[in-house]
Amino acid sequence: MDIALYEPLYRQGQILSDPDLLPFVLPDNDRAAWRELRILVDIHAEGLHRGARKTGLLSPKFALKSGLPIAAFAAFARQHPETDICILNPFPQLAYFSYNVWMQGEIAHPGLVSRTRALLAAAGVGLPVDLERRHPADRLCYSNFWVGTPDFWDDYVGGVLRPIARLLLSEPGHPAVRDVLEDTVHTDPSPFLPFVVERLLTTFLIERPDLSVASVPMDPSSACINPFEEEGLRFLRPRVDAAPAQGPFSADLVETMEHLCRLRQLYFFAYYADRPHPHSGGPIRPDQNGV
Prior knowledge:
Elements: E1 3-9, E2 22-25, H1 36-46, E3 54-57, H2 62-66, H3 70-78, E4 85-87, H4 94-97, H5 101-108, H6 112-123, E5 146-148, H7 150-170, H8 175-180, E6 183-184, E7 190-191, H9 193-207, E8 213-215, H10 220-223, H11 227-242, H12 251-271
Parallel strand pairs: 1-2, 1-3, 4-8
Antiparallel strand pairs: 3-5, 4-5, 6-7
Helix pairs in contact: 1-7, 5-12, 6-7, 11-12
């Protein structure tokens, strides 16, 4: 098999959302708070990542968030048979609102950076949580929408995610474990952990320039989900596009991006207080947040 894309089935009577997906059945959902972490680790532990040239895990919300059919993503991966990983970032506009995934993550989920650093240190994972390094758009992925080779799975899932999973299981009382399992604010109730894991992929790719990456071209303008994002993108795009692709950007530009990223979060609360959010289907309560 060339491309294997799995979808988790974790509810009674749940069926695949797309015929191009393969089922990964969870016999229980006792680690639901782990979100994709549990499933990625299970796929790796079972060796399913060795059954195809590239393997990935896609959530039932893939098409909703990306605007792309599953078949189109699979076709893109087939067009890049020699790459280590193919990614799809459903939020390309965020490359203009934040200098890197940790700036955006800390603004959306205050405390994320310190909790992530403590978790990685406790798990013995040597990835830096670096607010000073630019994350360019071609290695940016805010969701676990990726498909990788068996070697990539071994390096990333085996070397980064499985040590975190082992820590979560073996030391549930560890302060770093308790901290990432505390609730953050989001469109749906969720702990910090999934938002840590989402940002580790980009961090890993930045640390591994030897890896070949193919990123699905996404239009930042089309991805904007409210008027503030549209206006903010119009303001920031020419400035960011004129800056060095790898950074460092000027201090003024980084400060401007951070400021508009904070305003974007504030606008989010007001705008979706009485409007349905496109990824959740309902309004956002004041104790919830965005991406």
